[in-house]
Amino acid sequence: MKTFCGRANPTTGALDWVEESEEYDYHQEIARSSYADMLHDKDRNEKYFLGIRAAVRRVKSRGQQAVVLDIGTGTGLLSMMAVSAGADYCYAVEVFKPMANVAVRIVEKNGFKDKIKIINKHSTEVTVGPDGDMQSRANILVTELFDTELIGEGALPSYEHAHKNLVQTGCEAVPHRATVYAQLVESERLWSWARLLPLRVGGREVVPNPEETSCAGAPTVCDIQLSQVPPTHFHPLSQVLPMYRVDFSRPVSSSPERLTASFPALGSGSAQVVLSWWDMDMDPEGTINCSMAPSWTLPDPENFPWRDHWMQCVYFLPVEMPVTEGEMVRLTLCHDDYSLWYNFQSDNDSEPPISRPLCTCQAHMVWTRPRFGELNDPKRTDRYVEALKSIVRPDSVCLNVSDGSLLPIFAHILGAHKVYTLENSRMSKKVMERVLAANDLTGTIQVLESHPQQLTSSSLGDEQVSVLIGEPYFTTSLLPWHSLYFWYSRTALAGQLRDDVTILPQSASLCMALMEFKDLWRIRAPCGSCEGFDVSVMDEMIQSSLDFSESREAEPHPLWEYPCRALSEPREVMTFDFRQRVPEEALKSEGSVTLSRKGWCHGVALWMDYHLTDDISVSTGLTQPPSQQGDCEWSPHRKQAVYFFSSPWESAGDSASSVTYSLTFQPATGDIVMEFIPGPSRHATSA
């Protein structure tokens, strides 16, 4: 049986539906999962083991047999912990069949097959009774059903069903309870991710669509590594507040709920953003606590337990509201069965309805949060405006090829004769038309819902384009080089371009650096043994999936969230000249990069630099050269690509060791095939 999967196509700028084998989805699920990260999360694993031991002791002290229900068992780790702690029997439920099969093998390999039964079902389908999946109800409930938002993986409905149908009244639960915390803040940086903000170009202010400024925004949570947002980047307006607590040892409700905290404002400012995280107590007394708090809340920030499967949340309030220090205000948390959201009011305002925020302006459906941040970045805007000033003339006919871009507005303000812009969907066309209307530019810039291949001379008023511009940015791009769709567009538009056309950016460079990651390496590293249990079967499964099809390629990561060091100097390894058409033959680049700093090389970071003019460039990767120690600052607006090595390579930092690379750009597909191997240094070549 075949399956159809969406895959970005850099040659067309579209999401192609490609027929793959029936194993494709399974391998992608495993290769890109957080299983390895969870197994490497020592703090989580130790706390669960302590909580399970304590729960088994409490049941045994009452003279009862310890019967455990483990929902979402994954590898079977928590079930093995339970049996090792003295549980008499364990029912381990796992709905994902490949994982259930692996759990069977791991349980058998560790000698627990007689005391652990793997049930390949959703927990709501599990039956109890002589002929059921479980012989009797359990008196210990162990689960790991949580995501960064706590309840986003359906924890509440699963607990609700389990208490009604699968466990005894008064059962022990591990974890015993969870608490969601929130802090109200003002943050220029974070607020720039929420909506388009006014900016000045050529002495004129460009403003957002008024509908957007009053829109509640995207309904999905923004999950990030909040430890990488330093306290200097926000102004607290409240203390850290406990907002929502759920006791998993008692019946749980998934019904919508509103919870409110009243408090005097900690400072004056604009209430814009809620920072949120949760912790869980593994025992009733709260002596075994596992916290997702960001590092800057802890006494020893350098030694906080890093994890990527549970991060922290940023919630953007529907509108920003002024707050005065000491003013009594209210923060309201609402939840349904799968999500949380926040509202803010002064103490005299009425309570808001329990309804999820929804985007009504459509801008939040076109622009992602990093994209909002990119459009609002004044330094980045200044570089584009500076470059446009050098090429736009009073007789310029400009065509923009980038999704949801403000460059056409900049070109018009700078005096271009005519400006056209291509949008890839009706929704993005409508969003851009609303921005133009808000700035009294309706009719001065033509927004065309068209792909470059479909554009005709009549679409451009029978005039040829003298200036082709792009950031470039495309919503379908996943990896940095997917934005080479701009190059393919330029090639498709060749018949609409003047012979002396000016193209911005004029070229792009693929750049790379050899990296040591402080923690990110864990998501791809084999575990072997976890809390004394052999989980090597899981390692083999992950490696098999990583070796399958496109899983062998680089993968996108926002490296600003992951501390890392460059063990080599950045290197341009391939150049793409947009002034020429896409070649028919492959482009190849080979060479070696010297490891000039001491450390463990976990992989390669790759990104694109765009050369707008001869002397103005913008980078989607490093915002400045690495420090002497190799510390890096990355653009927060785009994801970089990371090619992980199968095992780390040690660098002595004496420039004696190097990594050899071989890169091939395939024009027919827009893909870049890459290979990195350790070896003697040699000079870079390209063809």
TrEMBL record:
Enzyme class: transferase
The enzyme's E.C. designation: 2.1.1.321
Protein name: Protein arginine N-methyltransferase 7
GO molecular function, one term: methyltransferase activity
Alphabetized UniProt keyword annotations: Methyltransferase, Repeat, S-adenosyl-L-methionine, Transferase
Job of this protein: Arginine methyltransferase that can both catalyze the formation of omega-N monomethylarginine (MMA) and symmetrical dimethylarginine (sDMA), with a preference for the formation of MMA. Specifically mediates the symmetrical dimethylation of arginine residues in the small nuclear ribonucleoproteins Sm D1 (SNRPD1) and Sm D3 (SNRPD3); such methylation being required for the assembly and biogenesis of snRNP core particles. Specifically mediates the symmetric dimethylation of histone H4 'Arg-3' to form H4R3me2s.
Lineage of producing organism: Eukaryota, Metazoa, Chordata, Craniata, Vertebrata
Catalytic activity, as annotated: L-arginyl-[protein] + S-adenosyl-L-methionine = N(omega)-methyl-L-arginyl-[protein] + S-adenosyl-L-homocysteine + H(+)
CDD domains named in the record: AdoMet_MTases
Signal peptide (from-to): none
Residue ranges of every copy of the Protein arginine N-methyltransferase domain listed in the record: 176-346, 506-672
PROSITE patterns attached to this UniProt entry: SAM_MT_PRMT
Biological processes per GO annotation: methylation
